[in-house]
Amino acid sequence: MKYFLIIVSFVAFSFSGFSQDTLNVMFYNVLNYPQVNPTKADTLKPIVKLIKPDIFMITELTALSGANLILTDALNVDGVTHYQRATYFNGPDTDNMLYYNSNKLALKSQFEIATVLRNISEYVLYYNAQTLSPGDDTIFIYCYVAHLKASQGITNEQQRNQEVVTFKNYLDAKAVSLENVFFAGDMNLYGDFEPAHNTILNGGLVKLFDPINLPGLWHANSSFSAIHTQSPRNVLLPDGGSNGGLDDRFDWIFTSQDALNGTNKVKYIPNSYEAIGNDGLHFNKSITDAPVNISVTPNVLSALFYMSDHLPVAMKVEIGNNVTVGIEQQVNISSWKGFFANNQFNFQSKNPESLLNVTVFDLVGRMVYTNKFNSTNSFIINLSSLTNGLYFVYVNSEKTQETFKIIKEK
């Protein structure tokens, strides 16, 4: 089977029609709410008042009453009335929810994707600006919320991958209609070595991206202290949340390529992605420990400490017919080609790469081959020892990455 790469060139331009707007997108694991403490909606209030999310996605919701309390006691407060929520589904284990600013967005549909543990929730929004004119194209945003299997170990890593394989298969079935995908959640990923991380980015037809592009071993690694999201506490609180201080990057918002370059009128605003309350100076500490954390106001810092054992992550996007489309996100990937023939995978790059890391995964995420190539723009690897089946060849350099799907038949 040959892997064909379609190269598409984008030219910067602007659409006529309604004006550009900004959306704040936020995800938060709210720690078994309202089961552990139903009064915590009041604790959440200063956090959402600071961020003012237009799209607010949460996990670890335990009851419909909690979904309503967040809406009435944390979002639609102090004169604010524009927040609405999706329909609550009581699935296995804890549940998800999406809230949205009805002055800017409307909910078109939602769906629950069943996995081996918890549901992954789909929420399809569309831009509902007051300046929308007859004949303007509707802008859709596909939001997905997940809480993957927790804990370290090969068994848990494989289960996380099974969950995201199910998710990616669902995306594949509707890939033609998808646009502006945001995949948010508590992913429980310990490093980019995990099969689930590779599947999220490269599995299937719909590739997803980390907006800040910081691969590595995030767990217990001070080099990533500025992006850690668990735990903002170094003490054990009565709500039973994890302690140990900030040392893991569990919470994410991944995006599709079009949401990075603006081709479907939604575009990530560079440098807007952040873990709220993380100043980069509290590795293995509580966010309230010394040195003084000035990344947010004291009342918000206290709320983040008590609300959950996770920090929320947030980002900003431009939306509207005046969003500029750029070409810079496409250049590296479009210069790579690969195909599989005669039990050999052949790779070529337009320009020499100083280092190419190659890893081959089977369908369930097991690593079956790995190698490195230095100072080259091509290589060939012999995969004749593999059994017949579907495999993913993951190639990454210092600047970019790509996955090639191959089928070994004989």
Describe this structure in words.
The structure is a single chain. The protein has helices at 41-51, 64-75, 154-173, 195-202, 257-261, 298-307, 331-334, and strands at residues 21-33, 55-61, 83-85, 95-101, 105-113, 120-127, 140-147, 181-186, 208-209, 251-256, 266-268, 274-275, 313-319, 336-341, 344-362, 367-382, 389-396, 401-408. The protein is an alpha+beta fold and 410 residues long. The protein folds into 2 domains: 21-319, Deoxyribonuclease I, Chain A (4-Layer Sandwich); 335-408, Immunoglobulin-like, CATH 2.60.40.3080. Helix 1 (41-51) crosses helix 2 (64-75) and helix 1 packs across helix 6. It is globular, with a radius of gyration of 22 Å. The relative contact order is 0.15. Residues 1-18 and 327-334 have low confidence and may be disordered.
